[in-house]
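New to this. Help decode both lines:
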Amino acid sequence: MSEAAAVPGEHPVHGADPHLAHHFSSLERQVDATRLGMWLFLCTEVLLFSPLFVAYSVYRYSFPAAFAASSRSSEIWAGTVNTLVLITSSLTVALAIHFVRTDKPRFAVTCLAITIAFALAFLGIKAIEYTAHFHEHQLPGQFYRFEGVRLPGASMYWSLYFLMTGLHGLHVLIGMTVLSVMLYRTAHGHYSSHYYVGIELAGLYWHLVDLIWIFLFPLLYLI
C-alpha cells in the first residue's frame, strides 16, 4: 500500500509525518481504519435509500397505470442529460485520484474542478426540471393538480419522485462540497503519492451518489 510509511511492528515518532494522527501507531493503520469507516458509512447510505426503493416497488405494484403514465409525463430529456453528466463526473473524479497518486496535482485539481462543474450542471438541470413540474402542478399528495394524468396513485408517484430525487440532490450538494474541500487541499499540496486517502474516500462517496442515480433514472423516467 502506497500510504504505508512505517515498518511493521515499529512505532514511529508522532509528528514525523504530518498526516499521522496521534492515536495511530502508523500511517498504514490509519489509512486502513479510515477506509473501513468510509465503507461502513456508505453502507448506512444504502440503508437510507433502501426503504424508498421498497416503497416505490410497493406503490408501483399497487398503481401500475398511474406510475407508468406519470413516468411518461416526466422530463425524460433532463433525466437523460443528468445521467450522462454524473457518469462523466465519475470518470473525472477517478482521473483526479489517479493524478494525485502519480504526483500530478495540477491535473488532479483540473479534474476536480470539472467534477464540481458537472455537479453544478446536474443541480441546475434538476432546478429547471422542478420548475417545470411546479408549473404543471405535478406535485406530491394533495397539491397534485396535473390534468394530463388523472389516475389513482399519480400523486403518490410524484411524492416518491420529489422525495427520492430531493434526497439524492442533497447528496449531490454534500458531495460537491466535499470535492471542493479536496480541490483546495490538493491545490495546497496536502495530497500526493505518499498520502491520498482523503481524496480517495471523497471519490468513493461521489461514486455512490452516481450509482444511486443510475437506479433512480430508469425507475422514475423510463419504466
